[in-house]
Amino acid sequence: MEQSIEVDIDAAPERVWEVMSDVERWPEWAETVTTVTRLDDDSALGLGSRARVEQPKLPPTEYVVTEFDPGRSFTWVATGPGVRTTARHTVEPRGEAGTRVRLSVEQAGPLGKVMGRLFFKGLTDRYLAAEAAGLKARSEQAR
User: Fold this and answer.
1) Cα separation of 10 and 8, whole Å?
2) In the prediction, which pLDDT does 143 show?
3) Residue 123: its pLDDT value, please?
4) Cα–Cα distance between 58 and 107 in angstroms, integer?
5) Cβ(51)–Cβ(37) under 8 Å?
6) Taxonomically, which superkingdom (predicted)?
């Protein structure tokens, strides 16, 4: 089961990517994220990067970046007994100075499908909306 949201942001794609890919700073603009701790070196996010994400109402989760297109997108995946969570983050140019972002979360596996549909659908929708709004606000701020 996949859930997603798109948001148009009045900022250059480079700015949006800068905010979105700096995952350790997400708690500053995403009320749905308490802590993000990188589990590897302090270099920029990239293929194979690992991070522990803590969010209200969810267990702490370790994600691994499985797809990475610098300046454009990254996908990270968390696995647990019977569940695989895939979160995709995509930045696309829109017009002369704008950006469209797509955030999506997919729950797979025997438990993931059931838990995603029955228990976490509303929570995931709220979290995606809050994260999109926070990313928009932070990206549109003057530096």
Assistant:
1) 7
2) 58
3) 86
4) 14
5) yes
6) Bacteria
Q: Considering only CA atoms, which of 87, 90, 67 is closest in space to residue 17?
A: 90
Q: If you search the block for the tokens 């700015």, which residue do you land on?
A: 15
- Cα-to-chain-centroid distance, residue 63: 10
Dmax (CA) for the chain in angstroms is 45
Q: Is 27 helix (H, G, I), strand (E, B) or coil?
A: helix
**How many residues belong to the chain?**
143
Secondary structure (DSSP) of 59-85: --EEEEEEEEETTTEEEEEEEETTEEE
Strand 50-54, strand 35-38: pairing: antiparallel
Name residue 124's amino acid: T
Q: Which range of residues forms the domain containing residue 81?
A: 2-140
CATH (domain of 11): 3.30.530.20
Query: Domain total for the chain?
Result: 1
Give me the residues of the chain with pLDDT under 50, please: none
- For 11-37, write each residue's pLDDT tens digit: 999 999 999 999 999 999 999 999 999
Residue 105 CA, chain-centre distance (Å), reads: 8
Position 112 scores a pLDDT of 63
